[in-house]
Write a structure and sequence with these properties.
The structure is a single chain. The chain is an alpha/beta fold. A hairpin with a 2-residue loop joins strand 2 and strand 3. The chain is globular. It starts with 5 loop residues before the first strand and ends with a strand.
């Protein structure tokens, strides 16, 4: 096998000086071919060169190159869709989608709020959400109603799970409630802006009247649950906010504080009608639910239920 250079989405983003969302959109539209190694999407250097040349002025003849048109047609026929979110259950969902439909799922690991905004801009097909609203005590819907203005959509439950504190083994600092974060002997590790865990933390601080500026370590961020849990395990921080699954994998203790509803939102239009039907069938299937249940720490009692739908 010949050794050809390839790039990750992040590397191409840096090379072209464009956002990763822009690249996901090009992949979704079939304009930039990709292949996958495990969970990671990669782009052949040759395909990247073809795309760059096709975008140059006075290069209309190159756009008609048979090999380029063939690549585009193959990509379009595979019905690429982009699923945004970080939970490993989304990998299981993607596997079932690929096995039981013509869709080819691609993954983005962007946080809930930024993903929802990207969906409004037409960049994602399925967005997973776990955003707590402190005024209503409800998850997800208050944010969707404010952001997806003018769009019909359906909100389906994927699962429920515990969220709370990552703490060191034995919980030596006896952290048990949100107000404990205001203690002067506590240093936290935060999640990035727009993530569901960051929204949960910020809403709880607001509800309890705790200024974020008083929280030691508030400005220190990690981009996923496992990195936050690892920061606590290594002693970089005393506590972080996340989900139970990551704590068990990393090997630290977990203090459950809230049950969060983890949902999927899909825009409703003629193009997504079949996709919605596929997702409904998968979520309600015994095979999918059994596979998710076997992971532990997930509540599937509402999986597949329609939480909200507009017409």
């Amino acid at each position: 096998m010949s050794k050809e250079l390839s790039y990750t989405i992040e590397e191409v983003s840096q090379l072209l000086k464009v956002s990763k969302l822009t690249l996901y959109d090009l992949v979704k539209k079939g304009e930039l071919p990709v292949f996958r190694v495990g969970r990671q999407m990669r782009i052949d250097a040759k395909d990247l060169d073809i795309y760059i040349n096709s975008q140059k002025t006075n290069q209309s003849k190159k756009l008609q190159a048979p090999e380029l048109e063939l690549k585009r047609n193959i990509t379009k026929d595979s019905y690429n869709i982009v699923i945004s979110g970080q939970d490993m259950v989304l990998d299981i969902l993607g596997k079932h989608i690929e096995k039981n439909s013509p869709y080819k799922p691609l993954r983005s690991y962007t946080g809930s709020l930024n993903s929802l905004i990207s969906m409004y801009n037409g960049e994602y097909d399925i967005v997973s959400l776990h955003m707590f609203d402190g005024d209503t005590g409800e998850y997800n819907l208050p944010y969707i109603k404010k952001i997806l203005v003018g769009y019909p959509y359906i909100l389906l439950n994927l699962l429920s799970r515990k969220a709370g504190f990552y703490v060191k083994k034995g919980n030596p600092l006896n952290l048990a409630s949100w107000t404990d974060l205001n203690r002067k002997d506590i240093k936290i590790i935060n999640r990035e802006k727009g993530s569901g865990a960051r929204i949960l933390l910020d809403e709880q601080l607001r509800i309890h009247g705790i200024p974020s500026r008083d929280i030691k370590g508030y400005e220190n961020e990690e981009s996923n649950h496992f990195s936050v849990a690892s920061a606590v395990s290594s002693g970089k921080a005393d506590v972080g906010v996340g989900i139970e699954k990551a704590a068990k994998i990393v090997g630290i203790d977990f203090v459950p504080l809230i049950t969060e509803r983890y949902d999927l939102v899909i825009l409703k239009n003629p193009e997504s009608e079949h996709l919605i039907s596929v997702i409904k069938d998968i979520l309600s299937s015994h095979r999918f639910q059994t596979e998710v249940h076997s992971l532990g720490d997930y509540d599937i009692s509402q999986t597949g239920n329609i939480i909200y739908e507009t017409y």
